[in-house]
Amino acid sequence: MNTTFKAIIWVVVLGVVAWAGYALLGSQPATPVEEAPVAVPAEPIKIGFMGPLSGDGATYGEPFRNIVELAIAEINAAGGVNGAQLIPIYEDAKCNGKDATAAAQKLTNIDGVKVIIGGFCSSESIGAIPVIEAAQVALLSPGSSTPDLTGKSRFFSRTYPSDATQGKVLADAAFTIKKWKNVVMIQEQIDYPLGIYNAFSSSFEQLGGKKVVKEEFPSTTTDFRSMLTKLKAMKPDALFINTQTSAAAGRILKQVKDLKWKPAIIVNDGTAGDMQIISEHKVTLEGALSAEFGTDPNNTKLQNLLSLYKAKYGTDMPYPSYGQTEYDAVYVIRDALLAVGNDGAKIADWLKTVANWEGASGSITIGADGDRVGGHVLKVIKDGKAELYVAPEAMKTATTTTATTTKQ
Amino acid sequence: MDIVPQLVVNSVIAGSLYALITLGFNLIYGTTKFFNLAHGVFAACGAYTVFWLVKIANLPLNLFVACAIGVICAGFLGWMLDVLVFLPLRKRKASSMVLMVASLGAVTAIQAVLAILFTSQFQTLETGGAGSYAYDVLGAIITETQIIIIVSSVCVVAMLGYIARYTTFGKAVEAVRDDEEIARMVGINTNRIISKVFFIGSAIAGLAGILIGFDTGIEPIMGMNILLKGTIAAIIGGVGSLYGGFLGAFVLGFVENFGIWKISGEWKDAIAFIVLIIFLLVRPQGIIKR
Fold first, then answer.
1. Model confidence over B72-127: pLDDT tens digits?
2. CA end-to-end span of chain B
3. What is the pTM of this model?
4. Which of A62, A359, B236, B267 is at 20 to 30 A from A372, Cα to Cα?
5. Taking CA atoms, what residue in B is nearest to A253?
6. A2 CB near a chain B CB, below 8 Å?
7. DSSP A118
């Protein structure tokens, strides 16, 4: 009886605390309105953010957050959106669908955002889509690139192109330029690498290459030795290292080297964009192929972004090919808010009409299927740097080759 | 067939790493009778100490000295966790469930601190020169680091065997393992023994973490994953048993690496758990019963 009574008391206390907490915190957003009785539409607009802020994916998520922070600070300093300040709310989606669902639920149900930037990893966007559809919230991804997301939802768009072109460009290069017939793959069991595998293997086999044999591994794996031993024994023409994060690719590259194996290598854009990993493994990666969504070093908005990033965070902006689309995503959302106001469905529809929008990543056009129109260009890794691939004949005539690419 | 020598080497390397984790885990479990979830995190602590010394502070230290400091640091942190958290709980006669939950809290907190200090990004201890030379043994390739891993695990099991058999401390540990109450009655300071066991067990985990750091790489969350494998090895070999755990680790290493010979590598973890379930059903006491 006594314990029951105590339990009831505790439940009551908890209830009071929860109510008080809700009353205090829940009423916070209303405060600015009370303070500003003047008819200025100064109510801040919350913008959701979803990306991998911990784990292996944090390599991409931390710069992503920095860039969003930077762009929003710029917009706010310039007066916000019709006088309303933008307030970013950051959630860690941990590069997987499960945590992305939780993050999206928190952003839509608790924070009540109408537009979310993210996810970065393809699995994050796939995981979040059912939630944002139910809540009628727009999701604009600057990095999710799996072909599975094409036309997936009315509420999903991206400023990064689909990997359908990445797989095709790599398959063409492997079969036609390198004359490889037998490519094996080590692939992480998650959406983004899977999308690349599907695009690559179908193009490669269509061209006449042998069936792409792959060893798959779950994301927690760190010991790849026996998988690599098996692949090495097949004596393939090339090894395709297809991971979600460059960290996993780094582990694989080290173990390839430890096995004294010197295969021709293909890596995806997630790895090729990590300047640190490719320079650490420059010996193993010499001559490796990759296909990236290019950056245009002559783009003034990109130049501006690179110098702002360096000034604010003290380091060079990592992954410029993602950084440019992340920065643009924030500004595209600003323009959507200016055009149709803070309404999830209207923003989602507006995003699919974006055409010839000039940003740091060049001219952005988003199709009705939500995909950015455009694609990947072939790159080759030389001396620890990813350079635009130049065919050997063209190389003779070229005066200098730089680590630059042109936008297609 | 030509990949068999390499698979054997891969199995022995994996087995040696699992063994180092299992040995420390079994030592602590045998003495305290609770499932110390924080055990793996000391592997990360040891590895990050070396990472800090060698790569961030850039101290002009011999690599072996840095590793020794890392091992001692991991041991010291284990000892501190016992003194600050587990000892007060034991004095309050907390159940092993409470201790386990406390250790889970410790993992979360320590991992968060590591992530704040060193970011949660993947890092490697590899310095380029040392340990990267690879030898060709009967058609299999093995690097210097991997040889050190194998030698370390054999040395650690031999050292623990020696301590258990020939020293007073070893006998005191044995007494605490058999019955803490009676050990206390005959005048053994059981809490001090347990604290020392935490030091030794965590130091061994630290060594494992450092070796993993040189072999594959480090991240703050590395501990949980390797602890999982370590406990599977402990259950296969016999929970709390010194040589059983050692044997279990190698059984696990071989089963995992040979298991994926003919099927895809994605099944590696599944194979480990299937073996675990078979052992739990057929021989729950493990290979060697303590």
1. 999 999 999 999 999 999 999 889 899 999 999 999 999 999 988 988 778 888 76
2. 38
3. 0.80
4. A62
5. B216
6. no
7. -
